[in-house]
Amino acid sequence: MKHKILLILILLLALILRWYKIDNPLADWHSWRQADTASVSQEYLKNGIDLLHPRFHDLSSFPSDIDNPQGYRMAEFPLYNAIHAFIAGNFTTFDLDQWGRVLSIVYSLISIIFLYALVSLLTDRYTGLLSAFFMAVLPFSIYYSRVVLPDPLMITLTLAGSYYFVKATRQPNLAHFFLSSTLLAFALLVKPYAVFYFLPLVWLGLITWGFKLLLKPSTYIFLIIVFAPLILWRLWIQQFPEGIPSNLWLYNYMNIRLRPAWWRWLFYERLSLLILGAFGLLPFLTGLVTKLKPKEHYFFHLWLVGIFAYLVIFAGGNVTHDYYQAITIPVLAVFLAKGTLFLVKPNPSLIWPFTPLLVSACIALSLAFSWYQIKGYYQVNNWSIVEAGIRADKLLPADAKVIAPYNGDTAFLYQTRRSGWPISFWGIPYLLERGATHYVSVNFDDQTNQVISDPNNTILEQTDRYVIVELNQNK
């Protein structure tokens, strides 16, 4: 009962921390990626949920290098978006953006529960509770647990599927088998990167059943359930190349893999400073070398090996975008917990009680230094795009197609709640031929001034922060 009460308190703390700026528009850190996700939900809300034909607002060739007049968005399977649109369409407590954040928070709280359950199953409840605590309070984890992205759902499904897999090795039954395979299948559909958490599951299966595992029909049924949906989805989306974002750069952009800059960015700037706040390295590294529990079987070390493989294979994506490291949080939390517990226990080789005080100070400083870097993520850097978007949404017809130039960043286009183009280097005549009806800008550059000065265009609204123009269709 005591452990359940502590877990509830951790969940309550996690909820409070994640509620910070819950009403932020999608114009904070990584707003473009959040906007891409939310615009699929917006289209579902407007036109109905179609899981096989997800669409978003961007009609340009910018993401895929192919014109995309239907606005197809063929990336991850749109499970997150379907749930998001269904909830937002049936419950009006929050608007679409806020519901996206709330759902991600809910997923993150479920992740904390399953991390606690999984770690407790393999080690002990104290390690499970402390792992849950670190996942709840790390500033990087907090921010990326309340973004409108599918990653929180993927982490939840992966942890839940892993938990039921471990249960299946202890108590083999159909329920555990079905839950594990189904949850892991959905995790892969939401984000294929979930596969990098599968290595310890393979190892655990081998040490439980040995190589007889390869002769069991249930093994192949399990693999089919887990991988077939992803394979079918990837085959399906090949019919819509215009909707598949360019992705080769994710692997080894600028040949950065394993070069000094790769090590510096991922292990020094991101993992050490941004996520662990430098001082968190002490308990983390200690956790790596602490003695294993009898039931642990190198499970979490293999998790870490899988994550390292992920960082190596998707070197370009990981160096370019820090949100790619959200997947590292559960395993980092586990080793932080293991190291902290080792250091705070009485040990004749360590000075007591200074060691617990030192560890407590390191954890506090870790959270403080990480927060110092993360706090800027919540900042909306350009409120003009929000103001212009709100006015455009009120002034423009529902079927308007908008040019909202913002260097390819779809965050501005999303604020208008209209389909269109987030970049205009092709020129206005080119976009008019493709159906553009309006021009909304927060930058009074040469192109915007030309649009304003054209007597054939109609200025619907202009302030010192933005302009909304109806374009002449006869050009």
Automatic annotation (TrEMBL):
GO biological process entries: lipopolysaccharide biosynthetic process
Membrane topology of this protein: Multi-pass membrane protein
Main localization (coarse): membrane
Domain Glycosyltransferase RgtA/B/C/D-like span(s) in chain numbering: 99-233
Record GO terms (molecular function): pentosyltransferase activity
Family annotation (Pfam families): PMT_2
UniProt key word Nucleotidyltransferase: no
Compartment(s) where it occurs, according to its Swiss-Prot or TrEMBL record: Cell membrane
Keywords: Cell membrane, Glycosyltransferase, Membrane, Transferase, Transmembrane, Transmembrane helix
Endoplasmic reticulum found in the keyword field: no
InterPro entries named among the record's database cross-references: LipidA_mod_glycosyltrf_83, RgtA/B/C-like
GO annotations of cellular component type: plasma membrane
Residues that span the membrane, as ranges: 99-119, 126-143, 149-166, 196-215, 220-237, 265-286, 298-317, 323-344, 351-372
Name the UniProt record assigns to this protein: Glycosyltransferase RgtA/B/C/D-like domain-containing protein
Species: Candidatus Chazhemtobacterium aquaticus
